[in-house]
């Protein structure tokens, strides 16, 4: 329970908080920002599942930026995700680079960043376009039901799987397992021990299934390399060493989750925000090529598909004047920072012409800034162009069903409508 009576009713650890409408949560984040100093939230310990130490919530843009910049003081080890996984889990599954500091992190990032260079991205642009065209063909043939299932979930999984060389026929299997892996992500700590353990069992089974699949793919690519990302990674020689199978597995988990959920949720939030703000939608459609860049940044700012990441303080220090001790945990709430009126005038208005728009939706400035940001931007641009050019009447209808999570600002389903082109 928080000590300050003005905000004693806010509990960022409880599932009830994340189950509330987004408007109410944003209002609570505004109250937390007004406190000024980061507020501490204790976390209960759950045997085998979480350590239960608690964290300071960083909700001001300036604090999130400062902590992201100073990665030596604000470490991503032992884990940048919340709740912090127990040590045995990392031993079992390996450590993804998002949970590493330099130089280990830089070493991995150097190898994989080649796959995200402008040259590589321009190579896959036509692939993304072909997938977007196929998705819209199918939607027109099937008629509108659920935008997430029919559109938003289909593009990113196909893009990331084709980068990795995962054959089309097993992609639905992969997608199912990613959904299980991320179920209740971020709020497991608020569940009862028994429920948390049951979920963890399901999550682990899904991860192990994916690791087995990827190990098989890695063996095949070692023997017969192609031009995909798996071939590049299994054959990469890093400082004289090869990546271990566990390192590979954990990197693939990261890519599958980071490259899939985020973009899918940005697409779903994007269509809803453009529907709820008809003047902005008109502005975009008047000059799609000129305004889509600004629209994507505003969708990412406003919706913040990744709500938060965590850091551990490595030395006694001050963060913008607030004292912190070595060992303290801080959680960087990107969603709250992206609605900070100190930086974004009228933050609750969705404005695709907002300039500047220094949002932290892809992370703050620092070594962990999203590796896939330009890929995500390209996917969003191509998908929205294909949708609006062929289905200009496309709109969401009714309310989305949100994912219960403090990590992914996820959309489980979103009804939509359009008139068939004549
Ligand atoms: C709208 C879409 C996306 C959003 C909002 C998003 C958000 C983020 C955020 C907030 C981080 C920072 C992590 C930290 O500070 O610790 C991050 C890191 C990362 N993202 Fe993204 N992401 C998106 C799309 C993608 C895509 C498409 C990929 C890959 C296919 C990707 C791969 C990664 C990776 C590998 C990291 C870890 C980077 C590192 O630790 O050096 N992301 N992302």
TrEMBL record:
The alphabetized list of GO BP terms reads:
cholesterol catabolic process
Q: Transcription: present as a keyword of the record?
A: no
For this UniProt record, give its keywords in alphabetical order, as a comma-separated list: Heme, Iron, Metal-binding, Monooxygenase, Oxidoreductase
Q: Which GO terms describe its molecular function?
A: cholest-4-en-3-one 26-monooxygenase activity; heme binding; iron ion binding; steroid hydroxylase activity
For this protein, the record's InterPro entries field holds: Cyt_P450 (IPR001128), Cyt_P450_B (IPR002397), Cyt_P450_sf (IPR036396)
**Matches recorded under Pfam families:** p450 (PF00067)
**Family, as annotated:** Belongs to the cytochrome P450 family.
Give the protein name, as stated in the record: Cytochrome P450
